[in-house]
Every structure is written in C-alpha cells, then in structure tokens.
Amino acid sequence: xxxxxxxxxxxxxxxxxxxxxxxxxxxxxxxxxxxxxxxxxxxxxxxxxxxxxxxxxxxxxxxxxxxxxxxxxxxxxxxxxxxxxxxxxxxxxxxxxxxxxxxxxxxxxxxxxxxxxxxxxxxxxxxxxxxxxxxxxxxxxxxxxxxxxxxxxxxxxxxxxxxxxxxxxxxxxxxxxxxxxxxxxxxxxxxxxxxxxxxxxxxxxxxxxxxxxxxxxxxxxxxxxxxxxxxxxxxxxxxxxxxxxxxxxxxxxxxxxxxxxxxxxxxxxxxxxxxxxxxxxxxxxxxxxxxxxxxxxxxxxxxxxxxxxxxxxxxxxxxxxxxxxxxxxxxxxxxxxxxxxxxxxxxxxxxxxxxxxxxxxxxxxxxxxxxxxxxxxxxxxxxxxxxxxxxxxxxxxxxxxxxxxxxxxxxxxxxxxxxxxxxxxxxxxxxxxxxxxxxxxxxxxxxxxxxxxxxxxxxxxxxxxxxxxxxxxxxxxxxxxxxxxxxxxxxxxxxxxxxxxxxxxxxxxxxxxxxxxxxxxxxxxxxxxxxxxxxxxxxxxxxxxxxxxxxxxxxxxxxxxxxxxxxxxxxxxxxxxxxxxxxxxxxxxxxxxxxxxxxxxxxxxxxxxxxxxxxxxxxxxxxxxxxxxxxxxxxxxxxxxxxxxxxxxxxxxxxxxxxxxxxxxxx
Length: 667
Fold this sequence. Notes:
Residues 580-657 form the Lipoyl-binding domain. By secondary structure, the protein is α+β, with helices and mostly antiparallel strands.
C-alpha cells in the first residue's frame, strides 16, 4: 500500500480523504492557497505546501506545480478529490508520465466521459438507453438551432465538458433559444474552457437516479446500490438519499447492470458514478458519467457499510475489488443534506462571511458531519460555498428523515447566511416524506419550502430580550455582599420600579421594548402587549417560559448582532442605537451588487431606456452566473464598473433615472 499520497484539493473532501488515509497508515501531503493557509485540511495533513494565490486558476488548478510538489515530497500517488483537476485528462496523463499514480480512472476513460456528447455516442454503441437529443461536433448556432427544433421543447442545453449545473439552461421555446445558448456557452467557457453544447429533450417529471460503480484493473466491475438526487436547484443537488425510494428490484438491477456495462465500455478503473434520468413510466436514460468520487458518496457508505475512499486507494494500488456483486449488501436508509452559505430567500445567492458561531449535531452511528471548516473560518468568494455535508442513517426512510430533521435543528451557524432553515422545511415537508420526487421538486413546492417563521415576532422579541439581559448578567460584576440589592444583577432602583428600555431592530423595523425585572422573572412590554418571562442562560442555551409556554432556544450575540435558533429556524435582530441606523447602500435609483463577485457582462450603456426585469449586468460569484435586472422602467444615467472588474456586495453598479410613474415603486 502507498506510504504517502498528495491530496490535490481543499475543504471537506480533502479532510475526508485524510481521515481514511490516516486510518490506513498512509501519510498525507496537502496543498493550500493564500486563502487556505489556516484551513482545516492543512492542519490535518502530515505536511502542506503553499501553491499560490486564492483564485483556483492560480492555485488548485496548477497541475504542473502540484506534480512538482508531489515529487518533492515523495508522494507516490495523487488523490484529486472532486472538482478542480479530478476529471482533467491532461492532469491524469501528466501523473502517468511522471510515474505518479493518479487515484482515479485512466486518462483515456476520463477523456471518453469528459465530453458529454462523446460519452453519449459511446453509450449508444454499448446499448445503454439515451434521451433523444443532439450531441454532434457541429457547434454552429444555426445547426444547434435546427437540432433544437428537431428535438422539440422543452429541451436542456448542457455544456459537453460541464458539471455542477454550470453551462446548463432549460429552454421552453424557440424564442428563448438564442439568448439561452449564448449564456450557457459563455458560462461553460468561463468554467471549463470549452463552450461546446449538447441538446437533449427535457423530461418534465423525471427523477435523477445514479449508480455508484467500481472497477478494478482486471476489468471486474460492481455497483454499490443507487442514490436518488432528484431534489435540486439550478441543476445542483441539494439533498440525496440511498436507496432510491420506490424502485422495483427489477429496475434497480437493470440500472445497475447498465451502469457497470457503461463503465466497462471505456475500460474504467476506480470509483465512478453513472447518472440516469428515471421517468414516471419506469424507463431510464443515460445522462452522464462522473469519473470521480461524488459529493454524495457518504450515503452509499452508510447503507453498504463500505469506505469508498479505502476502495479507491486499494484499487489504485492494484488490488482487486474488495467485494463481488453478490457480496454487496445494503441496510437501512441514508440521507445527505448539503449545508451551503447561500440565501434561499434571494434565489439561493451565494453568501460570504465569517463563521463566527458554529455548533454541529453530535456524531454517532446515525449522524455524520463531513466538513472542512471550523468556527472562525471565512467563507470567501473564491471557492464553492458548501460549508458541510450532513449525513444521517436509520433502519427505514421515515426514521432517517426524522433523524435529518432533528440533526438540522442541532446545526447552528451565525455570521453567514445558510440554507439550513430551507433544508429543514424540505426534509420535513409532506411531499418529500411521501417520496413525491422529481427534479422540479423545489419549484413545485415553494410555498412549503419557504414557510412563515415558527416564532411570531412578539414572542421572538421577548426571547431576544431575555437572551440579551441574561447575557449581560453573565459578564457583569457581582457585589460581594449577598444581602445587597445591587447583587441581584437586575434593574433595581431605590423606592421605584424602573422599566429599562431595549430597542431591537428586525429588518428595517425598530421595536421599542420595556423590561421590568422582578426577583424571579421579567415583565416585557412589546408594542403595548405585556409578557411574563422567566429565563436562564447557560452557555448558548436559553431555557425560558413565556406566559406559561416553556421553550428552549440557542443563540449567539456578537457586536450587537443577535441570532436565535429554534427548531431549524432562525431569528435575527440588532441591538439598536441611534448611531447604528442603517443607511441605504446606494442612492435612490441605484442598482447594487447583491454579492461579492466579478462583472462578466454589462448589457446596457448610458442613455439606454430599460424596462423592469431587463438584465443589465451579469455577475459571476462562486463559479455561477447571476443576472442583475432593472427594478423598474427608466433610463441608464451612469455605469460604474466595466466587464472583468471585481465588485463588493452593496457596490453601486448602475444609476437609473426611473420613469416618474415607476419611481415611487422602485425606491
């Protein structure tokens, strides 16, 4: 077995690989960019080498530098993880040329599956069922347009070298085709260096079911169950599970056999995933093959009891597969939720910030957390915004869902916006519990997935007041005289009752609270309503009773910013002071950047008349494009940034003189 490997990746997957390698007695070499100098994967590795500036193109994508470090450190093999260079044919070839084992498939297999159009041709020849569409070499707009009309609508435009939802567009009719093609090609060019597209019929109610395959150097192949990854947004997986609910054993075997056949058709070695679209009539069609370990591989590990990274290392060393197909067994049900730094209420815009508070559920045989960050780490614009993967297992799907809901309630983050509340609503929703799954699940159930807050504003404000007051008491000095009224740490006044004021800002609204402290409880007045509150704070946990309702919450107070956590929900407010009043990020009529990122395209010029909803600027952040649209009709008066420039969240991009009838609404 290898004695030392280099991990050409970062974050969660680098940490995941290190854990298994160390368990097997293998030393690990990490690489890191400027942004990752203090990252968790660096501290976990046996040694680490600086590789360049923060942008991945100048660090984690520098294949020559990575190979140089591998040779310098004495690493016998390189594990690419997923993303970055994991499916880069040139990198695999360079490893082979330098006598370094690439812990992945042969470069020829990566090349065969790296082009989605070429992959479909290979699969067609191997007898694997395909979705109708076009995957030819002629990439002229005229040919693609003609093939689109031949394929029929709705259709899916897909980057041939793509992955992770980048360079993909659903097109509903021919009128949308030209703009969608231009955007998809541009995004594919930026993400993969290749703008080529394929076209396939877009099934309206499909499920995304994928098969985990493994092959060794002797040509033997097995499949290790399937995963349902239907719950997606922007073609990126949000929640995955194994096994796929509702599949018959006949379909499961047919899909598994087809996946192994697909892998063997390209002389595959190592871990791979063959992805299928599964239609309502039980038919399935080859979609693509990912020639690497998948983000969602832990759910397969949880139901099979196998360590897939260990399998990768053994197969790369030249050992045969640890199990034959008849020996592969599954037990129970597993779910994985991807914890992202993003704002679901703003169309899942990526978020940045500092993880000033991070509390995760306790790990056990039922709960697993795969992460690459710790409290205090920064979520930057340079890399994917995934914070962690939360994986649960139990005997049945229903029990596993209950585990997931509970674990999400115990996952608490402050300092950056996350999708935890959204994931909690999703996992606990009745359609998901009933396995009413399609790739359009999120759009079909938006009302359920974006519920009203669990705490009404008044009760949340009362609890916030209790948290603030108890937090203050915990840090105030106490009189040494046990009989002194000043030792009570309340608002005691001689010969009077004093209701101390507290102003809490929620969004743009400021709430005036009056708190009268008694010996054993508070009276809290909020907007002319009075509540009786008892509260006790231990660390970050507040045990409270509000008018007889006993409730337990957690919270974090930092620089006047308070976040309360309750049953997967959050309540955020600010301790308001006059000098903390929020000012508009931009003057009236300004169009501002919703995130940190780079300007990809400016689709207007000074003097242009624009209409509400018209895309004026396209930004790129965390590998995804985002359209910035005009809020109302008007005329562009000034443009502040050019294509290629970096901008910060809140920066004014374009000034617009709104039409008089729309100005009040726009402001």
